[in-house]
Specification:
By secondary structure, the chain is mainly alpha-helical. It has helices at about 1-20, 25-40, 50-65, 75-90, 95-105, 115-125. Helix 4 (about 75-90) runs antiparallel to helix 5. It is globular.
Length: about 140
Amino acid sequence: MDKFLLLVRRFLAASFRHLAKRNWGAAVVEEYTTILSSIPLSATDVKVPNGLRYHIIDIYIDELDQIDTPRSGILPLESLLTPLRSLGAESPTKAVRLRVEEALEDERLVDWNKPEQAEREGMGDGEGEDEEWAGIEG
């Protein structure tokens, strides 16, 4: 089973690398997301086990993150998240819907195409971080 799940992970990573080499072209991304939505992430196909859906949901953002490390801003994130969103909306299984919801709440998705802006905004939040803790005074 572990070998099969590793194969799925490598296939997903290879697919994202292929899309990146094609500069995330709209037509290629659309075709790929259609395939994902119709086979492994199909909400209604009873032949696809939920375990496979869970695994793809769990690794989807991780694999995208590894492929798009430069964060050049050309990755069509909304298009690539379409299969997950449709699975979360259409799945009759509550556990699948919850897993998709958790994946879509990943903090990396918030500032995917603008990481510099998030870093600048995060710098002002840490007021008083340089102060040392003096311990319990009593």
